[in-house]
Design goal:
Elements lengths: L3 E5 L2 H12 L5 E2 L5 H9 L1 H13 L4 E6 L7 H12 L3 E6 L36 E2 L6 H25 L1
Parallel strand pairs: 1-2, 1-3, 3-4, 4-5
């Protein structure tokens, strides 16, 4: 049975890359959202966004942060990371900067988003516990293949790490 995961990513620059990963099919992810739908959610303010995130995370066992060039430090990415961790879900990152976007462009590698998030229990940075995988390829098709071949194991490992913490 496929694991259900919540995908977290910086919408505007990485939605194309995220859709590639979500469509791999070996794990079940949250539904994509269109520009118009997201605009409607954001019009409701912070509470509407929190409610939407909670609804999307419900029933998921892991959060996969798809790390692009500007993912780290974003308010809602950080919020999603903390919410998933506090809900005892697995949390993991996968760098997607070398996947091509709709214009066939790659981007620069971003910072680890877990390096700036502190865990409540011991005030340690999440990057000391949570892994961020950087596919060892620069060609987009090879990056996709790496993620496709490894995402199930990456998610399982993240869940095990969280369960053992």
């Amino acid at each position: 049975m496929a694991r259900k995961v919540f995908f977290s990513f910086h919408y505007k620059p990485d939605s194309w890359r995220a859709s590639q990963v979500r469509n791999i099919g070996t794990i079940e992810g949250n539904q994509g959202v269109s520009d118009n739908d997201w605009e409607e959610v954001t019009k409701g303010g912070d509470q509407a966004i929190k409610d939407w995130i909670a609804g999307q995370m419900s029933g998921k066992s892991c959060e996969v942060v798809l790390i692009g060039s500007d993912t780290a430090g974003r308010k809602w990415i950080n919020y999603e990371i903390i919410e998933a961790w506090n809900a005892k879900k697995g949390v993991v990152g996968i760098y997607v900067h070398n996947l091509q976007d709709s214009g066939k462009n790659q981007t620069t590698k971003g910072s680890n988003p877990f390096a700036s998030v502190t865990m409540n229990r011991d005030k340690a940075k999440m990057s000391t516990i949570v892994k961020a995988y950087d596919p060892p390829h620069s060609v987009s098709t090879d990056v996709y293949k790496y993620i496709s071949n490894n995402i199930e194991a990456i998610v399982e490992e993240a869940i095990t790490i969280r369960n053992n913490y």
